Amino acid sequence: MRTRRLVSLLPLLVVAILIGFFIVGLTKDPRELPTVLLDRPVPDFSLPGLPGRDPALTDPAAIQGEVVLVNFFGSWCVACLQEHAMLKRIQAEGLVPLHGIAFKDQPEDTLRWLGRHGDPYDAVGYDTTNRIAIEFGITGAPETFVIDKDGVIRHKHVGPISEEAWTNTLRPLIEDLQKG
Protein backbone atom coordinates (compact mmCIF):
# COMPACT_ATOMS: atom_id res chain seq x y z
CA MET A 1 0.00 0.00 0.00
CA ARG A 2 2.75 2.40 0.98
CA THR A 3 4.76 1.49 -2.15
CA ARG A 4 1.75 2.24 -4.38
CA ARG A 5 1.38 5.63 -2.76
CA LEU A 6 5.07 6.44 -3.42
CA VAL A 7 4.80 5.24 -7.02
CA SER A 8 1.72 7.41 -7.57
CA LEU A 9 3.61 10.47 -6.24
CA LEU A 10 6.65 9.85 -8.44
CA PRO A 11 5.26 11.59 -11.57
CA LEU A 12 4.31 14.60 -9.46
CA LEU A 13 7.82 14.73 -8.00
CA VAL A 14 9.39 14.50 -11.47
CA VAL A 15 7.16 17.34 -12.75
CA ALA A 16 8.06 19.49 -9.72
CA ILE A 17 11.79 18.97 -10.37
CA LEU A 18 11.39 19.82 -14.07
CA ILE A 19 9.46 22.99 -13.20
CA GLY A 20 12.26 23.94 -10.80
CA PHE A 21 14.88 23.57 -13.57
CA PHE A 22 12.66 25.55 -15.94
CA ILE A 23 12.25 28.42 -13.46
CA VAL A 24 16.00 28.56 -12.77
CA GLY A 25 16.69 28.49 -16.52
CA LEU A 26 14.43 31.47 -17.10
CA THR A 27 16.53 33.57 -14.72
CA LYS A 28 19.70 33.04 -16.80
CA ASP A 29 20.80 35.40 -19.58
CA PRO A 30 21.32 33.24 -22.71
CA ARG A 31 23.93 35.73 -23.99
CA GLU A 32 26.16 35.00 -21.00
CA LEU A 33 27.59 31.74 -22.17
CA PRO A 34 30.59 30.59 -20.18
CA THR A 35 33.87 30.20 -21.98
CA VAL A 36 36.73 28.02 -20.87
CA LEU A 37 39.05 30.58 -22.48
CA LEU A 38 38.33 33.28 -19.92
CA ASP A 39 41.58 34.43 -18.30
CA ARG A 40 43.60 32.30 -20.72
CA PRO A 41 45.82 33.35 -23.63
CA VAL A 42 44.24 33.76 -27.03
CA PRO A 43 44.40 30.46 -28.92
CA ASP A 44 47.26 30.24 -31.38
CA PHE A 45 46.16 31.03 -34.91
CA SER A 46 47.42 31.86 -38.36
CA LEU A 47 45.04 33.68 -40.65
CA PRO A 48 45.26 35.12 -44.13
CA GLY A 49 43.94 38.59 -44.68
CA LEU A 50 41.21 39.52 -47.09
CA PRO A 51 42.55 40.04 -50.63
CA GLY A 52 43.31 43.73 -51.23
CA ARG A 53 42.40 44.75 -47.66
CA ASP A 54 45.21 45.70 -45.30
CA PRO A 55 46.18 45.36 -42.56
CA ALA A 56 45.46 41.72 -41.85
CA LEU A 57 44.93 40.11 -38.47
CA THR A 58 47.29 37.22 -39.07
CA ASP A 59 48.34 35.86 -35.66
CA PRO A 60 48.11 36.45 -31.89
CA ALA A 61 51.24 38.65 -31.93
CA ALA A 62 49.20 41.20 -33.91
CA ILE A 63 46.93 41.76 -30.89
CA GLN A 64 49.46 41.85 -28.07
CA GLY A 65 50.72 44.98 -26.38
CA GLU A 66 47.38 46.77 -26.14
CA VAL A 67 43.81 46.05 -25.08
CA VAL A 68 41.76 45.06 -28.15
CA LEU A 69 38.33 43.87 -29.19
CA VAL A 70 38.17 40.88 -31.53
CA ASN A 71 34.82 40.49 -33.27
CA PHE A 72 33.78 37.33 -35.16
CA PHE A 73 31.38 38.20 -37.97
CA GLY A 74 30.11 37.12 -41.39
CA SER A 75 28.35 38.73 -44.33
CA TRP A 76 25.63 36.07 -43.98
CA CYS A 77 24.87 37.11 -40.39
CA VAL A 78 21.74 39.22 -39.82
CA ALA A 79 22.73 39.97 -36.22
CA CYS A 80 26.15 41.17 -37.44
CA LEU A 81 24.42 43.77 -39.60
CA GLN A 82 22.33 44.79 -36.57
CA GLU A 83 25.56 45.26 -34.57
CA HIS A 84 27.47 47.02 -37.34
CA ALA A 85 26.43 50.61 -36.55
CA MET A 86 27.59 50.12 -32.96
CA LEU A 87 30.95 48.76 -34.15
CA LYS A 88 31.40 51.83 -36.36
CA ARG A 89 30.68 54.03 -33.35
CA ILE A 90 33.16 52.12 -31.18
CA GLN A 91 35.79 52.48 -33.88
CA ALA A 92 35.06 56.22 -34.26
CA GLU A 93 35.51 56.74 -30.51
CA GLY A 94 39.06 55.44 -30.80
CA LEU A 95 39.08 53.97 -27.30
CA VAL A 96 40.21 50.52 -28.39
CA PRO A 97 41.41 48.84 -31.59
CA LEU A 98 38.68 46.74 -33.16
CA HIS A 99 39.80 43.65 -35.07
CA GLY A 100 37.54 41.37 -37.06
CA ILE A 101 37.65 37.71 -37.96
CA ALA A 102 35.36 36.77 -40.85
CA PHE A 103 34.21 33.15 -40.78
CA LYS A 104 31.81 30.86 -42.61
CA ASP A 105 32.13 33.24 -45.53
CA GLN A 106 33.78 33.74 -48.89
CA PRO A 107 36.40 36.52 -49.07
CA GLU A 108 34.62 38.33 -51.90
CA ASP A 109 31.34 38.28 -49.93
CA THR A 110 33.07 39.71 -46.85
CA LEU A 111 34.76 42.46 -48.89
CA ARG A 112 31.50 43.35 -50.65
CA TRP A 113 29.65 43.44 -47.28
CA LEU A 114 32.29 45.69 -45.68
CA GLY A 115 32.22 47.92 -48.77
CA ARG A 116 28.45 48.24 -48.63
CA HIS A 117 28.04 48.76 -44.86
CA GLY A 118 31.35 50.37 -43.89
CA ASP A 119 34.51 48.87 -42.50
CA PRO A 120 34.98 49.53 -38.76
CA TYR A 121 37.91 47.15 -38.34
CA ASP A 122 41.52 48.14 -37.77
CA ALA A 123 42.58 44.72 -39.04
CA VAL A 124 40.69 41.73 -40.44
CA GLY A 125 41.62 38.07 -40.62
CA TYR A 126 39.83 35.51 -42.71
CA ASP A 127 39.11 32.12 -41.12
CA THR A 128 39.15 29.95 -44.24
CA THR A 129 38.56 26.67 -42.41
CA ASN A 130 36.50 27.90 -39.42
CA ARG A 131 39.14 26.26 -37.21
CA ILE A 132 39.87 29.54 -35.41
CA ALA A 133 36.19 30.03 -34.63
CA ILE A 134 36.19 26.55 -33.12
CA GLU A 135 39.38 27.29 -31.14
CA PHE A 136 37.71 30.40 -29.70
CA GLY A 137 34.56 28.40 -28.86
CA ILE A 138 32.31 30.46 -31.12
CA THR A 139 28.69 29.33 -30.84
CA GLY A 140 27.25 31.82 -33.34
CA ALA A 141 27.76 35.27 -34.72
CA PRO A 142 28.51 37.88 -33.77
CA GLU A 143 30.74 37.20 -30.79
CA THR A 144 33.27 39.66 -29.41
CA PHE A 145 36.23 39.16 -27.09
CA VAL A 146 38.00 41.71 -24.90
CA ILE A 147 41.69 40.83 -24.89
CA ASP A 148 44.20 42.46 -22.55
CA LYS A 149 47.71 43.76 -23.31
CA ASP A 150 49.24 40.35 -22.64
CA GLY A 151 46.95 38.58 -25.12
CA VAL A 152 44.70 37.12 -22.42
CA ILE A 153 40.93 36.84 -22.98
CA ARG A 154 39.14 38.84 -20.27
CA HIS A 155 35.53 38.84 -21.52
CA LYS A 156 33.32 37.18 -24.13
CA HIS A 157 30.23 38.97 -25.41
CA VAL A 158 27.72 36.82 -27.30
CA GLY A 159 25.38 38.48 -29.78
CA PRO A 160 25.27 42.04 -31.07
CA ILE A 161 26.90 44.68 -28.89
CA SER A 162 24.15 47.01 -27.71
CA GLU A 163 24.49 50.52 -26.34
CA GLU A 164 23.82 49.10 -22.88
CA ALA A 165 26.46 46.36 -23.19
CA TRP A 166 29.01 48.89 -24.46
CA THR A 167 28.28 51.48 -21.77
CA ASN A 168 27.80 49.21 -18.77
CA THR A 169 30.13 46.28 -19.45
CA LEU A 170 32.61 46.53 -22.29
CA ARG A 171 33.78 50.15 -22.06
CA PRO A 172 34.37 50.07 -18.26
CA LEU A 173 36.26 46.78 -18.57
CA ILE A 174 38.41 48.13 -21.41
CA GLU A 175 39.17 51.33 -19.47
CA ASP A 176 40.16 49.31 -16.38
CA LEU A 177 42.41 47.02 -18.43
CA GLN A 178 44.07 50.00 -20.13
CA LYS A 179 44.99 51.46 -16.73
CA GLY A 180 46.65 48.22 -15.57
Automatic annotation (TrEMBL):
Gene Ontology MF term list: disulfide oxidoreductase activity
InterPro entries: Periplasmic_diS_OxRdtase_DsbE (IPR004799), Redoxin (IPR013740), Thioredoxin-like_sf (IPR036249), Thioredoxin_CS (IPR017937), Thioredoxin_domain (IPR013766), Thioredoxin_ResA/DsbE_sf (IPR050553)
Location, primary (coarse class): other
Classification via CDD domains: TlpA_like_DsbE (cd03010)
Compartment(s): Cell envelope
Keyword Repressor: no
One GO location term (cellular component): outer membrane-bounded periplasmic space
Record domain Thioredoxin: where: 36-179
Keyword field: Cytochrome c-type biogenesis, Disulfide bond, Membrane, Redox-active center, Transmembrane, Transmembrane helix
Biological process per Gene Ontology, one example term: cytochrome complex assembly
Residue stretches spanning the membrane: 7-27
Annotated Pfam families: Redoxin (PF08534)
Recorded family membership: Belongs to the thioredoxin family. DsbE subfamily.
Name assigned to this protein: DsbE family thiol:disulfide interchange protein
Species of origin: Roseospira navarrensis
